[in-house]
Amino acid sequence: MNLFEQRRVNENGRAGSVAVGSRAMTLGSAAVAPAPAADIAEVSSSMRAASGASAGAAARAQTSTAPIIAAENLRTYYGHNEVLKGVSLKLPQRSLTALIGPSGCGKTTFLRTLNRMNDHIPGFRVEGKVLVDGRDIYAPDVDPVLLRRRVGMVFQRPNPFPLSILANVTWGLRGHGLSRKEQRERAEESLMKAGLWDEVKDRLKEPALRLSGGQQQRLCIARALAVRPDILLMDEPTSALDPRASTKIEELMLELKKEYTVVLVSHNMHQARRVSDQCAFFLHGEVVEYGPTEQVFENPQDERTSAYVSGRLG
Amino acid sequence: MNAATDRYMRLYRRRKLKDQMMTALLRLCVVLALIPLVSILSYVTWRGIGAVNLDFLMKTPAPVGASGGGMANSIVGSGIVVGLAALMGIPVGVLAGIYLAEYGRNNLFGKVVRFLADVLQGIPSIVVGIVAFTLVVLPMQTFSAFAGAVALSMMLVPFVARTAEEAILTVSDDIREAAMALGQPRWRVILSVILHAARGALVTGAMLGIARLAGETAPLLFTALNNRFWHQGLLAPISTLTVQVYTYAIAPFDDWNAQAWAGAFVLLTLILLTNVVARTLARSKYGERS
Q: Which fold would CATH assign to domain B72-285?
């Protein structure tokens, strides 16, 4: 996995934020003095300074760390129950941000707020702002359907449709103005990106539900990528998988974050540490700490963070 | 063996005995429940199969007093009336089911519709016949296949609506969310993913509804009425198997009674076939996990 990290630095030259990630990984359990903690405002402002924010395929070529997602004093409610109590976070482009915290702390709610998947839950309400590329996604003129084409999602349990493998990947492409051939090409491209192509290329017409759990999850990732999102939300994507399948998904995440802005909810602290560049620690609907992964794990600024990452709080 | 283990074993043996007794009781109840079904099937077959011949299946009833003839017109008539009822009732029922499952889960309108559908399912079918008589037969001044179909579809809609709702609700929210998250409008999520995943249960529900209709007599008595000839269009009285069986069964002629048994046998066979077809169609190619 360090190989991935190394290649990433070479390819993208994003030494700044990458170093954080890879250092955190190599550090692991080794007793190396932690880097001085950068405060959250500093992180985000330096990120913003790095480049102007412009998303889409064109922007992927350049190396930018501008915040693509920004939550401003975000409060969410299910009925009278306040779940997020004023969350402000800026997530930089093309990197992986892990959201960690105990069950019920609001991290999944936060994730689902980013593509408005909570809209359909009765009694759900949002206050504050979520900006994607500077646009408030809860503004009345924003169509959640179009938003979700930019903000893809992978779920906790693999959830392929009861269709063929190919039909699963091309399903989201309706209304994108693609010919059958183009859809097919897009499917191939996405399956390759998801590292599944070699395993399924000879049986694209077979039922997707016949794949193994890990393959199904990679199919779901391919399905999400086919729509060409800029942002990929992953809600504990490995929690229903065995260790080997999980490792594959983790390796995939490291690849994906070169090209996409990935937001990962994880219960697995080791995983969060291995794959993320930034890490946000949620507790009782608030962000207790947010910063480079290395700092959050090695030198947490808050007593509660340190208790959680060391396993004393859960 | 000391006293403690002895008591333990005694308790264990008593529990095991109780378990065996209850299982035997359950088996007995299953057998009891099957007795009427099996006896109906075998008795109808025994009485009916002898009178089924090519004439019975191909000919219209013989004139009163003459022997021979068949129920071909009733078999076709049943097909027409039930088919027309399905054509009117299934689309409305399925759409109502989609509404209940996808949009009306918690709102007041959904609750009211669900309640009314349940009530409607419990209404005696003779009442449905009277309603159809009042709404269709009286204004049109004629008994007709159409009136019969309207009566039957009134019974079909609530049944299909509720089974469709149940079918759609069995589709896991995982799939629903996956589809929504891909940035597709809700109607397409419902049409191409939800309905697809629920297809098996939807088809089964519709077919069971049809099978139920095929056996209805009361709603047809004064809507479709009866007819001794081939069908004469949808706006004329039409013969159906059930009404014909009823007519022939209460007639004082032995050969009519025999034909009634044959009609009952044919009806049972058709309903059985419908069920088998429903179950075969319900198997989805991509739905099975291996």
A: MetI-like fold (1.10.3720)
| Digit-coded pLDDT (tens) for B192-243 | 899 988 988 898 899 989 999 999 999 999 899 898 888 888 899 999 999 9
pLDDT tens digits for A124-158?
999 999 999 989 999 999 999 999 999 999 999 99
Chain A residue closest in CA terms to B174: A159
Tell me the pLDDT tens digit for each residue of A35-77: 333 333 333 333 333 333 333 444 444 444 567 899 999 999 9
The residue behind tokens 């039957």 is B152
Restricting to A residues 200-219, those with a Cβ less than 8 Å away from any Cβ of B are 207-210
- SS3 breakdown of chain A: % helix, strand, coil, rounded to 5? 45, 20, 35
- Residue found by looking up tokens 């069986």 in the block: B245
Question: Nearest Cβ partner of A155 from B177, B192, B285?
Answer: B177
List, in sequence order, every beta strand (DSSP E) within chain B: none
Q: Does B193 touch chain A (CB under 8 A)?
A: yes
Q: Give ∠ CA A294-A296-A297 in degrees, rounded to 5.
A: 65
Place of tokens 């007519």: B247
Q: What residues in A contact B108, CB-CB < 8 Å?
A: none
Q: Which residues of chain B are within 8 Å of residue A208 when distances are taken between CB atoms? A: 286
Tell me the C-alpha distance between A255 and A8, whole Å: 8
Question: A258 CB near a chain B CB, below 8 Å?
Answer: no
CATH of domain A21-309: 3.40.50.300
Which residue in A145, A162, A223 is closest to B286 by CB distance? A162
Pull the structure tokens for residue B175.
Answer: 């799939």
Residues 6+ apart with CB under 8 A from B263: B48, B71, B74, B241, B244, B245, B248
